[in-house]
Write a structure and sequence with these properties.
Layout lengths: L2 H65 L16 H12 L4 E8 L4 E4 L16 E2 L8 E8 L2 E11 L6 E10 L1 H11 L4 E7 L4 E4 L1 H6 L17 E7 L7 E8 L11 E8 H4 L1 H47 L14 H43 L1 H15 L6 H28 L7 E4 H11 L1 H6 L3 E5 L5 E5 L1 H16 L7 E9 L2 E8 L27 H11 L3 E6 L5 E8 L4 E3 L1
Parallel strand pairs: 13-15
Antiparallel strand pairs: 1-2, 1-6, 3-4, 4-5, 5-6, 7-8, 7-11, 9-10, 10-11, 12-14, 14-19, 15-16, 16-18, 17-18
Helix pairs in contact: 1-3, 1-6, 7-9, 8-9, 10-12, 12-13
Length: 591
């Protein structure tokens, strides 16, 4: 698998996973929030309907409470010969036709003795079964029970007719309420919307429902026994709607509670809505999220492809360059045109590595040359110094002989001078091949510089060279080998004096910068041409006639032995500048 393909696959999967997680979280959070909001609305609506049903029922309880105390009701004890009670009941029903189906009076034996519907007179109405009390402590007992009349749902209210002339009751007053009044309340509450209302008793029997449910369900036989019914207050939940011919339902339930002095009938009001309809906006959101996911994935894959290409292309180029470099092509790759800092950093690190390899190879070559120098030095020290000492001693003896002519003394001087030069050459070769390890001691670097200048003051004055010192304002105590550091400055200054024209400039500068000690020795001579700057420190490389080419090599060895670096560049005057840098991992004292 290529780098580009791996990056593209990783970025695509990362983007897809992130989008799926975000879409799922958004969907479920929105669905949960919407469910909570709808459930709260259902609870509120059920509570409002419960109040309206309680108000309607309370009004009828108040009516029956007033009617049972009418004086005419006492006539049921004398047989109601002139039908006064039946006439009164008919008049009461006629005044409230929208609420009452029938008004009935029975005697103490339960036989109908008066009714708004004459056909019911003589019948017997039982008072046991599903009757529930709904009166409060300040009211006489009033009972309620659901029932059917003329194949329609109805509600029966009953209360005892008190004896105006004695204790106890003389009969019962029944009021058959037309349930259409309650159904109208339910229908008006839901209108043509997606919600439905149910009225249930405490056993789960459906007493009534809104129009949409009445039209498709058999309400009198419908039972919802396993549904959660609150004993008081309101609640909401999700329930399976198979019993109502629907899918999952959101349910808001409210229990009938005390209204005015009416304790309330043990009914439950259920406001229901199908989750299929309630969560339709959530489904729209889901489709929107899926469309956004597809669009984002398309854009994301395109961006990922471009990004993978911009990341992978430099790596591919570096891989190709590695193959070429292994085959001998040392040309560096072009810097990638990318704004990705890591890729640019990788490119820079790779180029630095190649340059380090080049330097390592040069150091191997240098080490080989130094090894040759070492062998030569050992041979020359053995083969040259012994006969050279004999020649020098012989020349010194000849020089002491009296009566020598000027020509003879001149020749003897040549012999002594050349033997001295050969001795220096052998000594330098030995120092280059077997450098002495530095002995680190705290030394004042500025004192070393001034000491070297004092030693060379005669030569500096003879060459009429102006020395400019730009030393760090604070004295620097540097852990180093004093003799070796003096040798560094001696060689650099002497080397500069060889090239500085009469009346020229020599500059020495020191500074502390970024955790390092920096030293620069510069001049206004002809400088070092760029093509040979890399070779200037090679053994036996010299730019002046008669030079051995080991002075700068020894300087570089001393600087590196002190953990530093040295490089040659161009000075501010156009000449050569030898710049040294020593890290301050060795203690540098400042005063």
């Amino acid at each position: 698998m290529t780098t580009r393909a791996a990056l593209l696959r990783a970025l695509s999967w990362l983007l897809l996973g992130s989008m799926l997680v975000m879409a799922a979280l958004s969907f479920f959070n929105f669905r949960r929030a919407m469910q909570v909001e709808i459930a709260a609305n259902l609870e509120f609506s059920a509570s409002v309907i419960k109040e309206r049903i309680d108000t309607l029922l309370y009004t009828q309880v108040e009516n029956i409470r007033v009617w049972r105390s009418l004086q005419v009701m006492q006539d049921i004890t004398v047989g109601d010969i002139d039908k006064r009670v039946s006439g009164t009941l008919s008049e009461l029903r006629a005044g409230t036709k929208s609420f009452y189906k029938a008004l009935i009076c029975t005697n103490s034996a339960g036989r109908v003795v008066a009714a708004s519907d004459p056909a019911m007179i003589g019948r017997t109405i039982p008072v046991d079964g599903r009757w529930q009390t709904i009166s409060g402590p300040s009211l006489a007992d009033v009972f309620v029970a659901p029932m059917e009349r003329d194949n329609r749902q109805a509600i029966a209210l009953r209360t005892a007719i008190p004896n105006a002339f004695g204790k106890g009751g003389i009969g019962q007053l029944f009021v058959l309420l037309d349930f259409s009044a309650f159904e109208n309340v339910l229908d008006q509450a839901v209108g043509d919307g997606p919600r439905n209302l149910l009225i249930l008793d405490s056993q789960g029997n459906v007493i009534s429902a809104s129009r949409a449910l009445r039209e498709r369900l058999d309400i009198p036989t419908l039972r919802l026994e396993n549904w959660k019914m609150p004993k008081a207050g309101v609640t909401s939940y999700v329930h399976d709607g198979t019993a109502l011919g629907d899918s999952t339902l959101l349910v808001g339930a409210a229990a009938s509670s005390q209204y005015q002095q009416l304790e309330g009938v043990d009914w439950r009001i259920l406001m229901i809505e199908s989750t299929r309809i309630a969560f339709r906006p959530v489904l729209h959101l889901l489709w929107g999220l899926l469309a956004l996911l597809v669009w984002t994935m398309t854009i994301g894959v395109w961006i990922a492809s471009r990004l993978a290409g911009r990341i992978a292309q430099p790596i591919v180029e570096l891989t190709a360059f590695t193959r070429r470099f292994r085959q001998g092509d040392e040309s560096l790759p072009e810097r990638p045109g990318t704004a990705i800092s890591e890729v640019a950093e990788l490119f820079g690190a790779y180029v630095d590595m190649i340059r380090a390899l080049e330097r390592s190879r040069e150091q191997v070559v240098r080490a080989g040359k130094l090894a040759v120098v070492g062998e030569m030095a050992a041979i020359m020290a053995h083969e040259i110094r012994t006969p050279m000492s004999i020649v020098r001693s012989s020349a010194q003896l000849l020089d002491r002989q009296p009566g020598l002519s000027e020509k003879e003394r001149e020749l003897i001087g040549f012999m002594l001078g050349e033997t001295e030069r050969l001795n220096r050459l052998v000594t330098m070769l030995l120092e280059c091949a077997r450098p002495k390890p530095p002995e680190f001691q705290p030394q004042d670097l500025h004192a070393i510089v001034r000491n070297v200048l004092d030693l060379l003051s005669t030569r500096v004055e003879a060459a009429r060279v102006n020395v400019e010192l730009d030393l760090e304002s604070r004295s620097v105590v540097f852990d180093c080998d004093k003799e070796q550091m003096m040798q560094v400055f001696l060689n650099l200054i002497l080397n500069a004096l060889q090239f500085i024209p009469e009346g020229g400039k020599l500059g020495i500068r020191t500074s502390l910068d970024a955790g390092a000690l920096r030293i620069s020795v510069s001049d206004d001579g002809p400088g070092v041409p760029a093509p040979i700057r890399e070779r200037i420190f090679d053994p036996f490389f010299s730019r002046r006639e008669g030079g051995i080419g080991l002075g700068l090599t020894i300087i570089q060895q001393i600087v590196q032995a002190h953990g530093g670096e040295i490089a040659v560049g161009e000075s501010a005057w156009g000449g050569a500048a030898f710049n040294m840098r020593f890290p301050l991992n060795r203690e540098v004292g400042r005063t």
